[in-house]
Amino acid sequence: QLIAQLTTQLIAQLTTQLIAQLTTQLIAQFTNQLIAQLTTQLIAQLTTQLIAQFTTQLIAQLTTQLIAQFTTQLIAQLTTQLIAQLTTQLIVQFTNQLIAQLTTQLIAQLTTQLIAQFTTQLIAQLTTQLIAQLTALTRFITM
User: Fold this and answer.
1) Is 83 helix (H, G, I), strand (E, B) or coil?
2) Tens digit of pLDDT for each residue in 118-130?
3) What is the DSSP secondary structure assignment for residue 79, as one 8-state letter?
């Protein structure tokens, strides 16, 4: 009886320790995977933002250069200062408004797409991982 009682207590204690150890390992593994995924997604998102910012600046710079070149050629061709001044002002105003409008629309569209894509992927990945880990834990506990 004493041996049976001690054996039962030892099995219970070892089982509890094993479950605690495996649970800790699963939590650590899940946390590491989640951190890796989120880091990768954050790097991708920041890269996309940097590319968008760089592209916007490049477009603005090239547009400014093109406008300056065009304006110089136009001023050289026009016969009066009034026509040259009004043409330059209209081109600059229209171009700035068009760039601002198109940039705002593009940023809004890309932001919406990135948020939707990121949210869908994250929910799918987290759900899959959670189901797999709960299944594994359930199988282990029921053994």
Assistant:
1) helix
2) 999 999 999 999 9
3) S
